Amino acid sequence: MPDFAPLKNDLILRAARGEKVERPPVWVMRQAGRYLPQYHVVKAGNDFFACCRNPELASAITIQPIDHYDGYVDAAIIFSDILVIPQAMGLKVDILDKVGPHFPDPLREPSELETKLTKEVDVLKELDWAFKSITETRLKLNGRVPLLGFCGGPWTLMVYMIEGGGTKLFRYAKTWLYAHPEASHELLSRITDVAVEFLAQQVVAGAQMLQVFESWAGELGPKEFKEFSLPYLRIISSRFRKRLLELGITEHIPLTIFAKGAWYALDWLADSGYDVVSLDWLFDPKEAMKITNGRVVLQGNLDPGTIYGSKEVITKKTEEMIKDFGGGKQGYIVNLGHGTQPFFDPENLGWFLKEVHRVGSA
């Protein structure tokens, strides 16, 4: 591990450990992205994944919001994508303009587990560029804020690998669940294996906190979530800790789970080995705090659409949210309930960040 600069702002790490803090830390999912004009300057016509695979470009984009909102964002999150795991497993993935993720040759039949996927994935080799980007970004941050890494949740990645992209019907993925449950578990298990190693090696490369994005959790009913998502999320958290020890890392690295839409699963997630549970905007903060009862730190959960409102509305909603999470001095990290959107006014997002500091410091 390189000789990284000491942290000047460790607020989010202290909050994630459940310590009392002077104010709630804040960062924003997908904070490095298209809503910032400078993103388009750096991207400069490059393919999305070409930017991810270029440590110079990826680190520059990651640090853009830290510079733009200097002093108001408490963490950087590496510029990458959850779909790098399917790529590492042997599937081709493109990001098409105005379309999104596209798999030219997705999995459609269980037999294709043996013909289209790499059996033994060499994570260090296949995702070497990701680790280089993390190391370079951590060095460039020079201790300003912690660097977050991430991966996609197994069920969410399974959806993309089978559907071939975004979907509203989940026809093919649900066919696998209900017609081919054994093959579904096989695929989920193989994704989980890669996810554990990918997360652990991100820490080796310099990531100081990690988040698992189970973005399609809400497409599963409670019983299906307990069968096809929750067990694999729990395997990730437990095996990740063991893998770090094998790699000689004894420091406790905070781990966050974001299971979007799985409102019924909060109690289960609070007992799944994660330090932080991130909430979408469908949760009532007061109810979430009752359910979790101090077992985990909570993160979230402002409706991203609030950023389209006036500054007065943003202030009102921010005040309500922080109050409902108990004031934010312990057990809470401020975030949106999902990622930024390309049409955000950067000034409005900046107003939100400043209001978090004002309200949270009171």
Which SSEs are present, and which pair or pack?
Elements: H1 11-16, H2 37-43, H3 48-53, H4 55-68, E1 76-77, H5 84-88, E2 94-96, E3 100-102, H6 112-115, H7 123-126, H8 128-141, E4 147-152, H9 154-163, H10 171-179, H11 181-205, E5 209-214, H12 222-228, H13 230-246, E6 255-259, H14 266-269, E7 276-278, H15 285-292, E8 297-302, H16 311-324, E9 332-336, H17 346-361
Parallel strand pairs: 1-4, 4-5, 5-6, 6-7, 7-8, 8-9
Antiparallel strand pairs: 2-3
Helix pairs in contact: 2-4, 4-8, 8-11, 9-11, 10-11, 11-13, 16-17
What would you say this structure looks like, in words?
The protein is α/β, with parallel strands linked by helices. It is built from 17 helices and nine strands. It has helices at 11-16, 37-43, 48-53, 55-68, 84-88, 112-115, 123-126, 128-141, 154-163, 171-179, 181-205, 222-228, 230-246, 266-269, 285-292, 311-324, 346-361; strands at 76-77, 94-96, 100-102, 147-152, 209-214, 255-259, 276-278, 297-302, 332-336. The strands form two sheets. It has a seven-stranded parallel beta sheet. α2 packs antiparallel against α4 (55-68) and α9 crosses α11. The chain is globular, with a radius of gyration of 19 Å. The relative contact order is 0.14.
